[in-house]
Specification:
This protein is of the alpha+beta class and 308 residues long. 22% of the residues lie in helices and 14% in strands. Strands 5-6-7-10 form a four-stranded antiparallel beta sheet. A two-stranded antiparallel ribbon has the order 1-4. A two-stranded antiparallel sheet has the order 2-3. 44% of the residues are buried.
């Protein structure tokens, strides 16, 4: 974990709340690094096309705050990814709005099922309340998110979202990986600076926004036990995992962990991005949630993650 302790066999939820990278390294090997890479691309995280390895599940490849904000907005939108856009409206001479060129029309696609997106939010909501992201919320708008700290404190992140807004906060040096070991007397980690920055920004950005809780899915995710991939201490050879009938509660969510970016005076960068139009709410009451699932009641609003 971030605190250099080992917790043994634990759930994915607990591993997320404590930033236990060993669990996610094993999970990456179990499901296959290439599938993790493919999912990242479906969420708009454009990592380099290197041969995927186990560390990809920890966020070892370079990403941008904008990509992370867009990926987290997908969870807020119940699995619908919206490509970020810089221009939302063009006004022509005569105060005429250009409605024919596609400005402001977001390109969207479904990247995850509602059930999986909801489960990711369920875990990240707990992290924002009790885990490494504690203190990120404004006490009014329900939020979810994840911290991230790279080796030697060269980069620090907090990516999070509410129902309406996704925001990513990154701290580091733009031109190199320089340890941030004494900034205002303390080491820079996801929870020490990015979380408070995210909190202050979102509190202001959402001040006049309606309080909305996260949606519930039309159907809850099913859980399957999984046989580990074929890997050992002398090397890794991926073997497609086998699945058995639903029984256990092995979570299928994946959250970014130690994220690297090329990062020369410390700078703070915040990238925000509105989520796609609020997804349709469920007309009928959803089925009862699984026993081991905890959801947090509304209020909300949000953007980028990693491990602490």
């Amino acid at each position: 974990t971030y605190g250099n302790d080992y917790q043994g066999s634990i759930s994915l939820t607990r591993a997320t709340l404590s930033s236990d990278n060993t669990v996610y390294a094993q999970l990456t090997l179990d499901v296959g690094p290439r599938y993790v890479w493919q999912m990242a691309h479906r969420l708009g995280v454009h990592m380099s096309p290197d041969i995927p390895v186990a560390s990809i599940g920890l966020g070892s490849l370079a990403v941008s705050p904008l990509d992370m904000a867009a990926a987290y907005a997908t969870f807020a939108a119940m699995g619908v990814y919206a490509k970020p856009m810089a221009i939302t409206k063009v006004i022509l001479p005569g105060n005429k709005v250009d409605k024919d060129s596609g400005w402001g029309k977001s390109q969207t696609k479904r990247a995850l099922s509602e059930a999986v997106a909801w489960k990711v939010t369920d875990v990240l909501r707990q992290n924002a309340l009790y885990g490494t992201g504690a203190g990120s919320g404004d006490g009014l708008h329900p939020n979810a998110g994840k911290t991230g700290t790279t080796e030697n404190h060269a980069d620090a992140w907090f990516d999070g979202y509410t129902r309406q807004l996704s925001t990513g906060v990154w701290m580091g040096y733009p031109k190199g990986e320089i340890p941030m070991l004494n900034v205002h007397g303390q080491e820079v980690a996801g929870a020490t600076f990015p979380v408070p920055i995210w909190h202050e920004y979102m509190a202001a950005a959402l001040y006049h926004n309606k309080v909305l809780g996260f949606e519930l899915p039309k159907a809850y995710p099913s859980y399957h036990s999984i046989t580990r991939g074929n890997y050992g201490s002398l090397g890794y050879v991926y073997t497609a995992p086998t699945y058995t009938a639903p029984t256990t509660t092995t979570a299928t969510s994946s959250t970014p962990s130690k994220l690297r970016t090329q990062t020369t005076t410390p700078s703070r960068q915040t990238t925000t991005r509105a989520t796609p139009p609020a997804p349709k709410t469920t007309a009928s009451a959803p089925p009862p949630p699984p026993p081991d699932t905890t959801t947090v009641a509304p209020p909300t609003t949000t953007t980028d993650p990693a491990t602490q």
